[in-house]
Design a protein that fits this description.
- The protein contains eleven helices and three strands.
- It is mainly α.
- The chain has a three-stranded antiparallel sheet, with helices on one face.
- Helix 2 packs parallel to helix 3 and helix 6 runs parallel beside helix 9.
Length: about 240
């Protein structure tokens, strides 16, 4: 449950997976409470029960981990794994390296944002500037995350780096649509998963988790705007 919540799973998936694992491993019943930064689970077997609290530290999106834990729970439910094998598998999943090489991620994020700039009507000069801005921003984001810098400060710094490089399209008049580079270069920071999870959690009745995730999405959006504003002010660019 801790792995799921830390890597972008919605609250109901967390509850279902923890419950499935517990009952498959021999418990009669589990009551699971998911909060924004902790999970509380009570397991019951006959007249005995045990309650455990696990704090959730750090939030990021990694659907590889979510998928791996979900597959594990199905294997335990079907009787393929006992509790010792399940624990060993959870340890393996928690220590898995990133699915993609960091430089491949940097290049493909740059390409994705640059492609969006073309879809938004930008020319090839804007494409090149957006690629450089978003790829550099992704590198900055990776480095700050590796140093465990505060999430919002990371977003501000990343948006600032992307905005500063993207502003060159307007400063040096390389394109007739420089504002496209500014808007496309920060798309890697858009908090899509938290906002989608927030809506899904609230629809399914997990109001506290949904509200916190929604507030987090709003704060990230404001941090993106602040980083861009600082970059545009420093470069002397006005208006998107």
């Amino acid at each position: 449950g801790q792995l799921l919540l830390q890597h972008g799973a919605e609250a109901e998936r967390v509850e279902e997976t923890v419950h499935r694992l517990g009952t498959a491993l021999g418990c009669d019943w589990l009551d699971v409470l998911v909060s924004p930064n902790a999970i509380i689970a009570t397991t019951s077997s006959g007249p005995e029960f045990r309650t455990k609290v696990r704090r959730v530290v750090g939030m990021r999106v990694d659907m590889t981990v979510v998928s791996a834990v979900n597959r594990l729970s199905r294997r335990v439910e079907s009787g393929e794994l006992n509790r010792f094998q399940a624990r060993a598998e959870l340890v393996r999943i928690s220590s898995m390296p990133p699915h993609y090489n960091r430089w491949l991620t940097v290049g493909l994020v740059g390409l994705a944002c640059a492609s969006f700039s073309r879809l938004f009507g930008g020319d090839w000069a804007v494409f090149a500037v957006t690629f450089a801005a978003s790829a550099t921003a992704m590198f900055v984001r990776q480095e700050l995350a590796r140093r465990h810098v505060n999430q919002l400060l990371t977003v501000i710094a990343t948006a600032f780096a992307a905005g500063l490089i993207a502003s060159s399209a307007a400063v040096f008049r390389w394109s007739e649509t420089p504002q496209t580079a500014l808007s496309a270069a920060v798309l890697l920071l858009v908090p899509g998963v938290p906002l989608i999870n927030a809506a899904e959690d609230m629809i399914k009745g997990h109001m506290v988790v949904g509200l916190v995730r929604g507030a987090t999405g709003v704060l990230v959006s404001l941090a993106i705007a602040l980083g861009l504003l600082l970059a545009m002010t420093l470069a002397g660019v006005r208006g998107l």
